Amino acid sequence: MRVFFRTFGCKANQYDTERMRQESEARGVVTTNDLGSADVCVVNTCTVTNAADAEAKRFVRRVKRQNPQARIVVAGCSAVLREREYAEMEGVACVVPGHDPLQVATAVAGAPRGALVQLGMNRGLDGSHLEPIAAGILDRREGATRGWLKVQDGCDRKCSFCATRLARGASRSRPPGDIIAEARALSRHHPELVLTGIHIGHYGRDLEDPITLSVLLARLLDAVPDVRFRVGSVEATEIDELLLDLIRTSGGRVAPHLHMPLQSGADPVLRRMKRWHTREAYRTRAFQVAEAVPRIGLGADIITGFPGETDADHEETVALVEELPFTYLHVFPFSPKDGTLASALPNPVPQRVAGERSRELRSLAQEKNRRYRQSRAGEVSVVTLEAQGRRALTGDYLRVNVKVGLNADTSAGVNVDVDVAGVGVEALRRLHSGVLRGDADDLYIELALASTPSWAASSMESPSYSHVSSE
Length: 471
What we know:
The protein is of the alpha/beta class. Helices cover about 35% and strands about 20% of the residues.
């Protein structure tokens, strides 16, 4: 049986799809990248906006047109909130309202329509349920250099614009031992592991023996010595001193990169969003982060045109972005989502205005990114390779081209085409050192493929973090 998987949405969703794939393959199915030849298509949906729901439904209809004989299994966040709508779509054989890989694997194997019921599902709109949190161990992320390491699921916050909490339920943490075991398995295939989840800053609060995200990271550094770890999206107010210390002192083993959601730089908008930080609290922490780690990739999410956002509110956001040392931004015009508080707020901002504000902030972010890229030229960087070695990702989250230096190792599966590296599987499984060259518009790393960071070459030289506590 051939199965095609399609994922919409965030890294947590991508991780969940990999678990679905792995559980399905363990039952004898074969994953295919050819939709036309698939016997089953699994669609892992996102529900961050109404547009995300609509996109998933369009894809289901496309599958039905392109491969009428394929059985369609719909899962994910949108399937939690719109289960009946998907079940009534032509071609959908089964709906799994959530992300349980065992249920999806059972559906792939041929369970009849309607046979699956979410374990412990609370049918209320809050979506609270007891869905297993990656009960198994993921051994690889198929076709990717970097591996996703999911540490928790769900969220206890109640941002007025967010539907993910409705679909994912309360924050639930994986036990540290399971995470470490999975990190060891993933490290055999991936030189970098990204800690991901829905609200990773709340990791460990619900465990019988509570710990923090930074303590978990310290344990991972000790237990899995030959990879680089990267922290996924984390709130500015949840970045503690230990996390900054690990980034600063790990010698590159923790990527110097933080993504801190902002959403708005105006306090009136933040209050309507039901965010828990103020403009000044975020500003203060961002400068503290930059002072602790001078060469750091710093990103944020921003929503423009939130209901009630005035021109003055927007200018407050622009001023904050200009002041802070961001190296990139993700900027989106507000899009209402059914079932959220924000969808019913008064004083909507016209889409034209929200779009203009987004374009202004994106232009500003592009210029800040360009200046930062220019400043990195001539400096050493440690990278993971992507696109068969033609592109690379730096620790501070810059994507650069790859050119082969004079000391490149062209043996053992490494093929050199002019000055661009096309590398074998083993090279993709390693981190590589090199010097960034060029300028902001053509930044590349001059790579000696034989070189690896000293800590990756000899784990005995890595510092130990086992002494840290949760205090």
